[in-house]
User: Fold this.
Amino acid sequence: EVNRRPQNRQVNSGAGVYLTKNRIFAPTFFRQRNPKNFVNIYILTYIPCRDMQMPVFCPCRPRLMNFLFIPGINNTTSSFDAVRVSLPDTCTALALDCPAVKDVDAIAKGLLALAPDRFVAVGHSFGGYVALAMLAIAPHRLDGLVMANSNDWADSETQAADREFKARQAEAGDYDQLARAAGTRAYHPDNADRADLKAQRDAAIAGYGALRYAAHQRASARRPDRGQMLKDSGKPVLVITGDHDVVIPTARQTEMARRLEAEQVIVEKSGHMLPVEQPEKLARALTGWANGQQF
Assistant:
């Protein structure tokens, strides 16, 4: 079989074990060079099998890439739904909601207890602050870190005071108004009137709630600057942002990427809500970057 994906069975990338309903094909793989290109040739040995219940492990198969997605303020794991389904089958994708806790390190510890042993953390906005805390607490668990519409610096005193004021407003019953006001500037102008994004936003606000909003505003205000820690970690870092992010300005995220000497992807026609505005482009950026790393 030469450079062809069979239509009637699942094929692992590279030399591996091919599974059908009640059969295992164990291939001998070699690569023959011809003047034009490389040709993949498989010699398949048929092994009968009945009632196969578990996948067959093959040491030739590449290790799955585990992505852990962490949402931002006013968002839940649903903001990554379209991203996760757009990833290739060589990736696993777990999304975890942040609990209503007013300390990013405490949130990180809670999520680490639910996370895979090894993973790439993908933090969107506030989720990036939690991902940085994970790296500070358990660097051996993270293969890499993706900062999506996020930053590694601390709030100024003015920003911290504004967050506390908003937290108190939310506790006083104004959460819905605060969340919707934030939503008006979160999207690229071309996406602001999209019905699907409005529906997603309504569902996210309803699922997120005032309690988490107040806690996460206070957690953001108290977080430390972790820029030097991130640079010194030696971990692969991807900075990915929309070309029209006015919440955490695109220019400042670009400066961060340069300071960290990190790879950066700027996605066109996207604002601060990149995971829902351009999920397919985000998925492609993640896999393209991950495929180039030595995890």
Q: What stands out?
A: The CA atoms of residues 23 and 49 lie 5 Å apart. The radius of gyration is 22 Å. Confidence is low (pLDDT under 50) at residues 1-61.
